[in-house]
Amino acid sequence: MQKEVFGLFVKPLSRYCSFQRGYGRWDELAAKYYYKRPEVEREIAPAKLPLLTVPNVKDARIRCGFRGSEVGKLLDVLLMDVYSTDKSWMEQWLQRDRSKTSLVRHGDEFRVDSVSGLDNTVTYYLPSPWLAEAECEILEISDESKQTLNQGADQCHLYVEKQTFPEPIWPSFMVVPRSGTASHFVDSTDSSSVSSLHGHEIDPVAAFDVSLQFAKDKSLVSKYLECLDSTNILNISKQLKIRLQGKEQIFCDLERAVLREIFKEDNSVEKYEKLKNSKASVNGTIEEWSREAHKELQTSIEPLLSDFASKQLSLWKVYTYSESKLSLKLHELCNITNDLQMVQNLSHIYGSLGIPQDKLSIIDPDYARNKVPVLHKEINKAVYLNFLQLQFPLIAVSIGGFVTELCTAYSMGALSSLGIVLGLKRVKDTWYSMLKQFQLQIREECRIGIESNKQLLLHNWEISYAEREADLKGKVALLKEIADDLT
């Protein structure tokens, strides 16, 4: 699709546009650059795009930028009112600080206001006939500001500037300043040797000097008119005025320039194709993670569980473990299962997909804490029951037989020892069975944790994919639709 859209830019752009402007589309496109998701930083709209979201071209205020000192004198000539009886406003205007950016608007009387939004910018309201006829406002951009003032932020629809190569990015009215072509007009009325300028050539310095003379002395009208013609000011003034009054053409050119910059700077088309192609591969990556996680469960976690169980089987630990110590041991075991490769791989997948994630774990760290009271209660119950049901009765019989001298001390000692040993064995078997059951529960919990993480990742990926697809699909469709209208 991108090649098809780019094709329109290599076609001749000389013909004028005649089409119904789709402001709703430009509004929608601009909105596409201001969406925000938690994992994506705010995107910046392409330069000049907000200028295309006006509801009606006829009501739009065209801003024309005069860039550089080469066209500064041309601006002075255009805005002067040589027939005005009030020269004070022209004197104040001509004494402005040319190192600063100036915003010029038409006003019934001269006044100066500061303006916010552009640094070091002063707004001038001038009763200039040319400015009223052109129906525009002018931003005079000094040489100091030309390199630093962002062309997207200056809100200019069109620029007047010295002709350069290559041609500028944004719609421009190019002029070719010449100096000294008509300098004899300043001191002489002989125009026999005048060499008139043509095309977009101008000599604004000579035109400005003669205009100042004529503003003071109306008897120089012939010299003034000849100078304006010879310096090509009249022709340039008419062309520029017509250009500024043709709002539809200005917006048509601006649309092409904005669209060209979007396709140059914005890789949404490639992103969209890449996103569509990524769906199958991402699903495959998630499935591969699940297989590797289950494999790691068998090769790494189960040996850890067996090792843990074997180290906790001694009778000493059965009778000396407090609930807090047992909780610590089980908590360490659950933390070990959460530090395995599968957790790191899962975190990497979340990061590569740009999906926000909380702390990842296969087993809830509180799982052991919840299991400990039950385990401790059960083992204590086994110890007490064995003592009361087996060990204590045998010991009592042994003591009774020895005291009553019905049995020998040796036989009663053997009976008592048998009760103790049998009781300890039963306690140990019970503890082994409990640890084995706990081991199976941990393994099952890990299996469930792997599947839960897999399903959660798939769910989050589907949501993220749907959001990105909707945004990119809408943006690409809008770009193609707008581009087709401009062909």
Could you please describe the fold and organization of this structure?
The protein is α/β, with parallel strands linked by helices and 487 residues long. It folds into 2 domains: 46-266, no CATH class; 270-486, no CATH class. It has 16 helices and 8 strands. It has an 8-stranded mixed beta sheet. A hairpin with a 6-residue loop joins strand 3 (111-114) and strand 4 (121-126). Helix 10 (247-265) packs antiparallel against helix 16 (409-486). The two termini are 14 Å apart.
What can be said about this structure in brief?
With 487 residues, this protein is α/β, with parallel strands linked by helices. The protein folds into 2 domains: 221 residues, no CATH class; 217 residues, no CATH class.
Give the SSE layout:
Blueprint: H1 2-7, H2 23-32, E1 62-67, H3 72-79, H4 88-94, E2 101-106, E3 111-114, E4 121-126, H5 129-134, E5 136-141, H6 143-146, E6 158-162, E7 172-177, E8 201-202, H7 204-216, H8 221-230, H9 233-245, H10 247-265, H11 268-311, H12 315-320, H13 323-338, H14 341-353, H15 366-403, H16 409-486
Parallel strand pairs: 1-5, 1-6, 2-4, 6-7, 7-8
Antiparallel strand pairs: 2-5, 3-4
Helix pairs in contact: 2-16, 3-7, 7-8, 10-16, 11-14, 11-16, 13-15, 15-16
